[in-house]
Amino acid sequence: MKTWIFWSVLALAASAQPVIEGERIRAHLKHLAGDEFEGRGTGQPGGDRAADYIAEQFRSYGLETSFQEVPLVGVSTLPTSTFTLAGRPLKSGDDYVVNNQSQEARVTIDAPIVFVGFGIQTPDWDDYKGLDLKGKVALVFVNEPESQDPGFFKGRALTYPGRWTYKFEETARHGAVATLIIHRTDLAAYGWEVVRNSWNSEKSYLKREGGPALQAAAWIHYDVAGWLVGKDGLTLEQLYQESQLRDFQPRALTSRLQVRLDSRLRPFSSRNVIARKAAGPEAVMYSAHYDHLGIRPEEKPDGIYNGALDNASGCAILLELARVFASTAPKRSLYFVSTTAEEQGLLGAAYFAQHPPLPLKQISLDLNFDMVPPWGEPEEVTANGCERTTFHGEVLQEAAHLGLKLAPDPAPEAGLYYRMDHFSLAQGGVPSFSVGEGLKFRGQPLAYGIELANDYTRRCYHQAADEFQESWDFQGLARFTRFAYNLGWRAANQDKLVQWRPGDEFEAARLK
Ligand SMILES: [Zn+2]
Questions:
Q1: Confidence of residue 17 (pLDDT cuts 50, 70, 90)
Q2: Beta strands in 86-236 (DSSP E)
Q3: Distance from the CA of 500 to the center of ligand 1, in angstroms?
Q4: Distance 462 CA to ligand 1 centre (A)
Q5: Tens digit of each residue's pLDDT (9 = 90 or more) over 343-357
Q6: Are strands 121-122 and 106-115 parallel, antiparallel or unpaired?
Q7: What is the CATH number of the domain that holds 373?
Q8: Is 7 within a domain?
Q9: What are the start-end ranges of the E strands in 160-297?
Q10: Phi and psi at residue 63, in whole multiples of 5°?
Q11: 343 CA distance to ligand 1 centroid (A)?
Q12: What backbone torsions phi and psi does residue 385 show, to the nearest 5 degrees?
């Protein structure tokens, strides 16, 4: 009898088919989305309790579990600050938004302005043409040169150099003290109100460890930018057309920017939770952020941002994967990482990638989960970005094996790939992507999934209404989790590490 049990356990490990339990996923999701975690705010007691809960679960599965302290600084711009462009004092919120990324309480800037197109420098494109921005202010458009050619800025899809975060990073690398991003609604894909609302409160950063940083990272209203370049007899339309050209040359404007920036700095810290199933020196990683937006007492009904889908769902899947992997014997180690401060700008994942517990080169793959809804048994899965990696074929095979269709990215021009935690790992060179569900569920018309997704976006996304629903289907989510398990199992046992496809924008970071 004992021998029989022994052999059957071995067989289970070898065939890698442990049972994934939907009820366990439900229990984790419901618990983490509960009011006692107070919306799992970064640096708030509820967020810390969520990290403790996740660590406790990992430990109970017998995994080596640790916390990684993530040092952060909240920076708010104080109303005593002034912002004067070409001699005209601008109005905060209406004309511009600004934040000090250098983490100094007070700075003054009086510097000339240079228009540098899209501010992009890649192996294929250079807006700087040798220009040193040291002590200067960069003026740039958001987004990237227009393209229908998949070989040039990935066609219609947005690449990372098109994102506003890149503009601040790249201009700082070129020595700029301040950068003004020109807001144009179609290029940003959102209106000025969105910029104004998301920049009027404290912004969080990883505590600086050296490296370049802007003293004033700003957006300016399109009309203000038009007025500014008009002083030199230029129009934004003309400059936009120039910016499409490979032989674009930076243009020094005659105007200056004068800024006095007073900031409140609030150092705090939060924790990533890391669990390891130890095997070989190489590893496969799963990740899901546990933080959400915390409590905002002024909001109805209770001001608690439960974040049931965003991202208690991903954490619940991560925990169930950790549990089942704990009793298997893969060739590579498995890491289960629940990150903090994702909602603050992927900060926990960025810190992990900058301070990894093992060399990033030894991580074959990161599979991330962010908002995986329990709306039924999925017929479609998503893995946007897997086509950039040598793991694409395996993803297609595992999907086909489970009767799932791999749904394409519905909006490549939105650049969603750069807005989830896996991106921080990709920047460090690790082949990474998020795995999610499409909108087609078994026994339901496609319209059912579309309706639920639209309703979620309208009523729940980043709102206090993102709450656990008793009606949710966790057998369906277990099926999704099976797919995610199979991918990790494959990556943990295949001969070679996963790599980027040649020419991918992250290949260089992997080869460094
Ligand atoms: Zn979110």
A1: confident
A2: 88-89, 96-99, 106-115, 121-122, 125-126, 137-141, 178-182, 203-206, 216-220
A3: 27
A4: 6
A5: 999 999 999 999 999
A6: unpaired
A7: 3.40.630.10
A8: no
A9: 178-182, 203-206, 216-220, 251-277, 283-289
A10: -90, 150
A11: 5
A12: 105, -15
Number of Cβ within a 10 Å radius of residue 206: 19
Residue 461 phi/psi, 5-degree rounding, is -60, 120
Is residue 21 scored above 70 in pLDDT?
Answer: yes
What is the residue type of 425?
A: L
- 419 sits in which H/E element: none
The CA 170 to ligand 1 mean position distance, Å, reads 25
Residue 266: what are its φ and ψ, rounded to 5°? -125, 95
- Whether residues 231 and 106 fall in one domain: yes
Q: Same structural domain for residues 201 and 273?
A: no
The CA 420 to ligand 1 mean position distance, Å, reads: 9
| Residue recorded with tokens 């952060």 | 72
Quote the ligand 1 centre to 48 CA distance (angstroms): 18
Q: 294 C-alpha to center of ligand 1: Å?
A: 11
- In residues, how long is the chain? 512
The token pair that represents 438 in the structure block = 């499409």
Number of domains in the chain: 2
CA distances 39 to 202, 286, 369, Å, are: 18, 23, 18
Q: Which residue has the tokens 């040291």?
A: 134
What gap in Å lies between CA 315 and CA 88, rounded to an integer? Answer: 49
Residue type, 178: A
Whether residue 353 is contained in a domain is answered as: yes
Q: How confident is the model at residue 5 (pLDDT cuts 50, 70, 90)?
A: very low
Give 281's contacts (C-beta < 8 A, 6+ positions apart): 333, 358, 362
